[in-house]
C-alpha cells in the first residue's frame, strides 16, 4: 500500500504539519507514504526550523520540478488571487506525465486547487483520490475576494468557483472534512456524505496554572487580505491596560504588516503589543503555556491554532461553527461568539480577564479534551476511512 498526500504548495502556516505529521504516523502503521507538492515555493529555505520540525524524514516530490524545464518556466499567478496560478491547471496534464501507473494506490488531495492534478491521475493513471475539503471555493470567494477589485467580476468568478467545487468533489472516492461547518454546502454541491477527520496537536503533559501565566492574549496565523489582525487594536483599546497582545505568524503580502504597525503607532499601543516572528512548534508550545487566553477572530473550517492553545491549557475564543468548536462546549471550555460579532468577542475577553479563577478551570477542561486529539489518532482515523472505502482491503 502506497499513499501520496497531495498539496498544491507547502504554504507557510499549517501546511507543513498537515502533510508531515500524517505521513510520519502512517509510516509507523506500516503504510508507505510520501508528500506530493505541485509547486516548489522555496519558503522552507526562509523558515527551515518551522518546516523541518514536521517534514524531516518525510519524502517530498515536487511535481513541476520533475517536469520539462520549459513547462516549469511557463507560469503566471492569476491577477488578484493569493495562490491560484496557471500551474494548478497545467497539473492536470503534468502530474500524469511525472507519476506512473500503479506508483500510488491512493492519492489524498488537500483542497480543490490540488484536484486538477488528482483528476489527471485518476483519468490517465487510474489512481483514485480522496479529497480533504476545507472551505468551499464559493465561500472563500465571498469571504476574501469580494473585498478586492475582483468583486467587479464576482458573477463570473462565482460560476468558476462553483464548478471547481463541483468537479473536484465529483471525482473523489470520499470527501473528508475537518468539521461540520461546511457539511451542508458540500453535500449540496456533491451529494456525497462527508467523513470528519480532526487535525491533531501536541498536548502538554502538565497543566500550567494561571498564576504562572502572563495576563496576555496570544494570536498567530498567516495574515493576508482575508485575515487581517486589526480587530485586536480595537480590543486592546477597550480592555484593561495591563492586558498585552502577543501576535505572531506570517504576513502575505508584507504591506499588511506595515499597515498594522502604522495603526499600532497611531493608537499609541506599542507598549502593549509584542510582535513575534513566525512560530515553530516549540515556540507555539512555549507561548501557549505562558498566556491565559488564545483568540482567533475569524471563522475557520477547523482552526488548528485553537486546538494547539487548548492543548496547553489556554482559555480559547473562536467564532461559533468553526470546525474546532465541534470538540468543545461554549462556556465550558471557552467562548464561541457568532462570526463578525465584535461586541460579543470583546465581552468574552473581558469575562475571562475579570474572573481568572473561572478562566483557569475552563482552560483545564479544554486541555483535557485536547489531549484526545493527537496526530497518532488522526492517522488511525484516516486508516479507518481507507478501510471503510475498501482501499486498504483491495490493495493488501
Label this structure with key terms.
396 residues, alpha/beta, Rossmann fold, 2 domains, seven-stranded parallel sheet, six-stranded parallel sheet, 17 helices, 43% helix, 17% strand
Description of the structure:
By secondary structure, the protein is an alpha/beta fold. It folds into two domains: 2-200 and 374-395, Rossmann fold, CATH 3.40.50.2000; 210-370, Glycogen Phosphorylase B (Rossmann fold, 3-Layer(aba) Sandwich). Helix content is 43%, strand content 17%. The protein is built from 17 helices and 13 strands. The strands form two sheets. A seven-stranded parallel β-sheet has the order 3-2-1-4-5-6-7, with helices on both faces. It starts with a strand and ends with a helix.
- Residue-averaged pLDDT: 93
Coarse morphology: globular
Considering DSSP H and I runs of 4 or more, what fraction of the residues is helical? 40-55%
CATH C-level category of the largest domain: Alpha Beta
Question: What integer value in Å does the Rg equal?
Answer: 21 Å
Largest sheet, in brief, is:
7 strands, parallel
CATH homologous superfamily designation of the largest domain: Glycogen Phosphorylase B
The structure class reads alpha/beta
Poorly predicted sequence stretches spanning 5 or more consecutive residues: none
Question: How is this fold's topology laid out?
Answer:
Blueprint: E1 2-9, H1 15-28, E2 32-39, H2 43-46, H3 48-55, E3 60-62, H4 69-73, H5 86-98, E4 106-110, H6 115-125, E5 129-133, H7 137-143, H8 154-170, E6 174-177, H9 183-190, E7 194-196, E8 214-223, H10 231-237, E9 244-251, H11 254-267, E10 273-275, H12 281-288, E11 291-295, H13 304-310, E12 315-317, E13 334-335, H14 342-354, H15 356-370, H16 375-388, H17 391-395
Parallel strand pairs: 1-2, 1-4, 2-3, 4-5, 5-6, 6-7, 8-9, 8-11, 9-10, 11-12, 12-13
Amino acid at each position: 500500500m502506497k499513499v501520496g498526500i497531495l498539496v498544491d504548495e507547502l504554504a507557510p502556516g499549517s501546511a507543513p504539519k498537515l502533510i508531515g505529521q500524517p505521513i510520519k504516523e502512517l509510516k509507523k502503521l506500516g503504510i508507505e507514504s510520501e508528500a506530493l507538492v505541485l509547486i516548489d515555493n522555496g519558503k522552507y529555505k526562509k523558515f527551515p526550523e518551522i518546516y523541518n520540525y514536521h517534514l524531516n524524514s518525510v519524502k517530498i516530490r515536487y511535481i513541476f520540478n520533475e517536469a520539462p524545464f520549459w513547462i516549469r518556466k511557463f507560469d503566471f499567478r492569476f491577477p488578484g488571487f493569493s495562490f491560484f496560478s496557471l500551474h494548478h491547471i497545467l497539473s492536470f496534464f503534468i502530474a500524469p506525465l511525472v507519476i506512473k501507473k500503479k506508483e500510488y494506490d491512493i492519492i489524498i488531495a488537500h483542497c480543490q486547487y490540488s484536484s486538477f492534478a488528482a483528476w489527471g491521475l485518476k483519468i490517465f493513471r487510474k489512481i483514485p483520490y480522496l479529497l480533504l475539503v476545507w472551505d468551499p471555493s464559493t465561500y472563500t470567494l465571498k469571504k476574501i475576494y469580494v473585498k478586492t477589485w475582483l468583486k467587479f467580476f464576482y458573477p463570473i468568478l462565482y460560476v468558476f468557483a462553483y464548478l471547481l467545487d463541483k468537479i473536484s468533489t465529483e471525482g473523489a472516492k470520499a470527501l473528508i472534512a475537518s468539521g461540520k461547518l461546511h457539511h451542508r454546502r458540500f453535500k449540496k454541491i456533491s451529494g456525497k456524505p462527508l467523513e470528519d477527520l480532526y487535525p491533531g496537536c501536541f498536548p502538554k503533559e502538565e497543566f500550567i496554572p494561571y498564576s504562572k501565566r502572563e495576563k496576555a492574549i496570544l494570536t498567530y496565523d498567516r495574515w493576508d487580505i482575508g485575515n487581517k489582525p486589526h480587530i485586536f487594536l480595537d480590543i486592546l483599546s477597550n480592555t484593561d491596560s495591563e492586558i498585552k497582545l502577543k501576535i505572531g505568524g506570517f504576513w502575505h503580502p508584507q504591506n499588511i504588516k506595515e499597515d498594522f504597525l502604522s495603526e499600532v503607532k497611531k493608537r499609541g499601543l506599542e507598549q502593549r503589543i509584542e510582535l513575534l516572528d513566525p512560530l515553530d512548534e516549540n515556540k507555539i508550545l512555549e507561548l501557549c503555556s505562558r498566556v491565559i487566553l488564545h483568540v482567533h477572530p475569524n471563522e475557520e473550517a477547523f482552526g488548528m491554532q485553537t486546538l494547539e492553545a487548548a492543548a496547553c491549557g489556554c482559555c480559547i475564543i473562536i467564532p461559533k461553527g468553526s470546525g474546532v468548536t465541534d470538540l468543545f462546549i461554549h462556556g465550558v471550555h471557552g467562548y464561541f461568539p457568532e462570526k463578525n460579532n465584535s461586541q460579543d468577542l470583546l465581552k468574552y475577553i473581558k469575562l475571562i480577564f475579570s474572573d481568572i479563577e473561572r478562566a483557569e478551570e475552563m482552560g483545564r477542561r479544554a486541555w483535557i479534551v485536547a489531549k484526545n486529539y493527537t496526530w497518532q489518532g488522526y492517522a488511525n482515523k484516516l486508516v479507518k476511512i481507507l478501510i471503510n472505502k475498501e482501499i486498504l482491503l483491495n490493495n493488501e
